Amino acid sequence: MLNKNFFTKNRKKLQDKLENNSIVFVYSGMEIPQESNVNLFFPNSNYYYLTGLDEPDQLLVLLKDQDGILNEFLFIPQKNPNLEKWHGYKMSIEDAKDKTDIDNIFYVNDKDEILPKLFKENPTTYIDESLQIYEKDWINGLKEFTNEFKNIDPIIGELRLIKEAEEIEEIRQAGKITGEAILEVMKSLKPDEFEYVPASLFEYQVKKRGAQDLSFPTIAASGKNGVILHYVKNNNKINDGDLILFDLGAKLNGYCADVSRTFPVNGKFTKTQLKFYKALLKTQKELIKEYKRGVSLRYLQELTKKHLEKNLKEQGIVIPKSGIDEWYYHSIGHSLGIDTHDNSNRDLILENGMIITCEPGVYSKEDNIGIRIEDDILINDNNPIVLTDGIPKEINDIYKYMNQVEE
Ligand code: GLY
Ligand code: MN
Ligand code: MN
Q: What is the CATH number of domain 165-401?
């Protein structure tokens, strides 16, 4: 479990990246009103990274003064007992102090008195543009002080790329829970049910094991749906003889696992399915070995195509005339953390402490085949560590867990 020292350390790391006389505003996010009045709220990941808090309408202000000293301020909404009857308890100033060790905590109403003092030295002003915060009146109010806003998101994003031991542990645990839930799904998988049934079972199983959330809406794509990369409708009947592609993950204490597995619905691959599956599994295992410090995601992407083509040919499969891009049309991986897609881009160079997915896929509409196999890899010099190890992907293991005879 992450404790408040972890989040305090993150603010100190950010302090080190800022020039003297600068001020940073990070907003926790607003609730999304629903017609039912039951509002949705997704906390801003940068805010969570710096505070460990996940309530709406809070504002973190970090002032690094002329001498390089960090002054931390937190503004939270005024408590409203009437609203709490509808939307639940909101933290008090004492709660916020206790949870963060930030000394200067105020109600938002006090900002008019406090903000002018913080802007006295005309600091360089950073805001978090990852949210559409300009909409908010009280952020608009900052324009009284300066018109020049820099985006803090790339700076926090850089910090979030390299994981501390406690973050690695959260993702490892999230992966373990994901794996256990996948086993339950495998055991119960059968034709003629709708895709949302195994998807719901997965959600139940991860929550039963203590994960508060899913990393993203589960993809349970059977048969032809497997070629749609972000298929989330999950409303088709699962046909006997088809494959089903699962892309899913548990989110534990704010940190995501992201795993894909593909299984034969009735527990037995057809000959064609088996050829594609063997080629892709071999590709994934070959690629994981290449997840080394100093290597770029762009290089790994090109390597994936080469290996996939070689391995498909080895299985006697004829590659489309237009090339392998016809059957493999996404990236090999991305950084993983508080967000499933945690500040990565195709030019990323792997560093120790990064957690990057390895998720090759092969998608042939004509063959009714969509296969993706995805694991979460910790970069560790030349010795990548698979954090989602042990989740069945070998053919014999799939047969074993789906109660079929061995190949
Ligand atoms: N589940 C989204 C992804 O694998 O990137
Ligand atoms: Mn995924
Ligand atoms: Mn992924």
A: 3.90.230.10
